[in-house]
Amino acid sequence: MSKEKLLQCGKHIARVLKEEGVEYQFGVTGGHIFPMNAGLGLAGIKLVHCRHEQTGAYAADAYARTSGKLGVCFGTAGPGMTNTVSGVAQAFWCKSPILALYGQHSTYEDGRDALQEGYAKETVGQYTKWTRRIVDPTLTSYYTKKACTDALAYPPGPVAIEIPLDIQARKTPVSRQQGYVANAFEKPAPVQADPASVEKAVKSLLEAERPVVVGGEGVFWAQAGDELKALVEFLQIPVITRRVGRGAVPENHPLAFSGRARGKILRQADVAVTIGLRLGYLEGFGAWAAKARLIQINEAVTEIETTVPSDMVIIANPKAALQQMLECAKTMVKEPPKRAAWLGAVDQIKQKEKERMEDAAEACSVNKPIHPTWVAKCCVDVLDDSATVIFDAFTGSAYMTERVQAKFPGTILDSGNWAGVGHGVGMGIGAQIAKPGKQVMVIMGDGGMGLGGFDVETAARCQLPVVYVLHDNSAWMSAMGPMFKSMMPTVGTQDPYTSWSMLPTRYDHLFAAVGAHTERVEDPEELLPALQRAFESGKAAVVDVVVDRTAPHPMMASMSAEGQSLADNPMMAWMDPEDVPEMMRGMLFGE
């Protein structure tokens, strides 16, 4: 009788992850996590070895949000774990299902000044659904399976597991793994909405004069794009999709709206349905719906916003709820409602925004240095319908997001409420692995490139054709810098324009040295051809665009144009007029 094979914990983890369809692991290895990395590798789970652990977490996040699958990142003990925190936190706030695996010092070294002593639960626990330290090797499979299930359960998010090195080294047979049964239950059917509530919601939409529907990340995770599109087409309702759900109804659809048209249209609505969307900070906490009858539909009650009055709340899977609403609507009416006045008003707003953007691009088409508006226009012109766009630039992203139109969900990625910097390099890697051969464009600032840029080498080494479009203005938040120049004197060589300047850097030379395709662009006429060559190169590429550092963030420009005082913003209200350079006082404090 043959003896049952003994497996170290990494192989138990790998066995479960393979059953879950995991194909990649992202991070930086080290002695405390060698057994886990090796276990996954021997099972065929490919390693994307990064230059910094934060890149691994960001890549796993983008992989998850682009593919709809579980992303896996890892870090060795101590600093290997702490270096992932920002990426894990971003995944938490962006509802991205990732599993973070950490090595750790041996249990007998607890509290004894061990090498790289650190504890994940206390460090990353606040940014995960749960974090578990495994000290019984026979529970490895159980917690791995639970981590996969819980990370993907709505609302999705990160889960972390740390395992001390001595526990990783202990070998146990599969039969000794406690509490684990492969595929113990069949995935349940989506939770249906209460039929009476569905009928009431549909009746409200049919009776409304100016209805809108706003779809969010829940539409993406429920794969409910087709149902959302069918409902708004049948009821003839303008629709906007947000967060990772952007493109669930293609943004070039006649009923879709986006960009700066958003606020103008939403504030006119008399009935508003949000589905799979948390009305948090980036949605203004739903303030735009103050005068509308608001219906919130979400799969989790924790995702319902309570700071805005709701006419109805429905807890259900978005796909199921939308199917029910469409079926209900077809029993109530035989043909779409007539909404000529409302749809005409929406189209007029959209057309004015289109004209504004065209005029803005034309007005700066020959500007040197290049204006971010022109960068955005050229970027949009070179993208195809399947492209993924990632935002990691303060001003550049703002000009881009209003112009790009998502055609599929999971193709517009940002850092969400976390609002980090430097995530774009790693996210580009994760997105390209999730959609091999498809266009992936990352809108970068030189601040973010300084934080995460050396992982462009990872993209080049892994032969991932990500195109990084760098807004090179040699400064942090350049248009805002002058107002702080007198308040924040700095050390060393600084630009007279801003406190937050950086030495001019030839990023094209820097990244050419690691084998990336690079171009430096200073003439606006050369930008579109340079972007085309970057994609045609089939390599990781950096297009280093020298941009106008005086171009304001669109939010600042619009507030100033409307006569609003930036000093009313809590981030600015602490300032005194006499401390601000005279050239900035009018914009900040009015006349």
How much helical structure, as a percent, in the residues? Answer: 25-40%
Radius of gyration: 25 Å
Instruction: Note the total helix count.
Output: 24
What's the N-to-C terminus distance?
91 Å
Strand order of the largest sheet: 2-1-3-4-6-5
Number of strands: 17
Average of pLDDT: 93
Low-confidence stretches: none
Q: Look at the helices and sheets and give the structural class.
A: alpha/beta
Please summarize the sheet with the most strands: 6 strands, parallel
Describe the secondary structure blueprint for this structure.
Blueprint: H1 9-19, E1 24-28, H2 34-42, E2 46-49, H3 53-67, E3 71-75, H4 79-82, H5 85-93, E4 98-104, H6 120-124, E5 131-133, H7 140-152, E6 159-164, H8 165-169, H9 195-207, E7 211-215, H10 217-221, H11 225-235, E8 239-241, H12 261-266, E9 271-275, E10 293-298, E11 312-315, H13 318-332, H14 340-363, H15 372-382, E12 388-392, H16 394-401, E13 412-413, H17 424-434, E14 440-445, H18 446-452, H19 456-461, E15 466-472, H20 481-484, H21 507-512, E16 517-521, H22 527-536, E17 541-546, H23 554-561, H24 582-589
Parallel strand pairs: 1-2, 1-3, 3-4, 4-6, 5-6, 7-8, 7-9, 9-10, 10-11, 12-13, 12-14, 14-15, 15-17, 16-17
Helix pairs in contact: 1-2, 1-7, 3-5, 3-17, 9-13, 11-13, 15-16, 15-22
